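Troubleshooting log. The previous structure file for this entry was overwritten by mistake, so regenerating from the original sequence record. Sequence copied from the archived sheet and checked twice against the printout by T.R.
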Amino acid sequence: MLIPAMKNYKQSSIQHANKKLRLLTGLCLLVSVPVLESCFLSDDTKETKSINNIKASSCAELNAEQQRKGDSLVALASAQQTDDMQFLFSEAEDWKEVKQRSPAQSLALYEKALTVAPGHCGALFGKAVAKAMMVTQDPELDKFVTKMDENNSGTLGKKGSLYLFKTPVNEAAPALLKFNAQLQQSDPATVREVQKLIETAILPRLDSAIASFEKVLENDRFFFDFYIDNDTVRINNAEIGPGLAGLKVARSFLVLIAAYDWEVAIDNRYDWFDTLENLKEDDFDHLSPGQLKSLDHLTSLFDVNSPFSKIRTGWQKRVEYIPSDLLSAVGDAQKGLRSAIDHSKNNDQDYRLYRVGNTEMDDVDTLLLADGIELLERSKKYLKGEVNIEYNKGRRHLKVNFAN
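Regenerated output below.
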């Protein structure tokens, strides 16, 4: 038993380690909020805009017949997808209603469009969105959300877990943390369950969406028009590039959460955190069985042979790919910013989400985007190999290598 040695520890040392592990566990659990939030939109206003129609350019060289058939199928798929999104984002009251509305029909139409018109940009773009929305049909997500709903009545009341997914992350994250802080409830969510959810439900769909958006980004002339309440909103590579970069950064973060052994639960429970949190100095002379078990568990996590914080089996290659994925993300973001500048130079900014230029009528200054491109270029060196970082007024140096 490791407990005798613990008597020499100060109470503050034990509680410090306990708080660090509690924070780490909370962060791992909280990752489910921004990930799952990608399936829903925040309802910030009572008035809901409706998407009436969608038009997209073609990425591949298609003949007239292919183009006609592809456009026709994409129009049908887009109409169905619009209905699905309207329902999920604005009308669904609970998780049961969400999972009953499957995006499979629009996904099948997009895939059929790609069969008759290979490389059709509208179909590629729509398919990427539909694939991401299909996460609502995943059985692992269903089990995870159902568990949250069964255990969170004291925290979220009748709102249920759907409240978390349709709430801005800055509000949803504290709510979920409060939910998981109730460690004595019967069956709390665990880090391992979050890791399984990421591995089986999130990453495969994220990989698929990224692959589709990469194909779209290859075409410099790509555009995608949404007609919203008689207003046209155009999406092109200026938006796709940074968006794709964000997805790749998110993927790298998710891989880190899923790839390492972060689990610290005892029998799928975290109430041992509370046991150590309430431990007093005098308690070491008459430790209860529960306190002994909690202290043994804490010290075992830091044993040299403990699997805690080590890479899990089968994840080594994905971890090693993270620097390359982040480098690719930097390139995507740069391409998007350059596209925005080019559209500004060519006076081609009709229907854009934001205008680039140097006048009071513009939303973003051209020089700001240029500085962003340069800053991203300088960031690449940190992902390619060893970098010498100076500190303490240049008297000390730290060598950092994120590529290994």
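The longest helix spans residues 64-91. Archived copy saved in two places this time.
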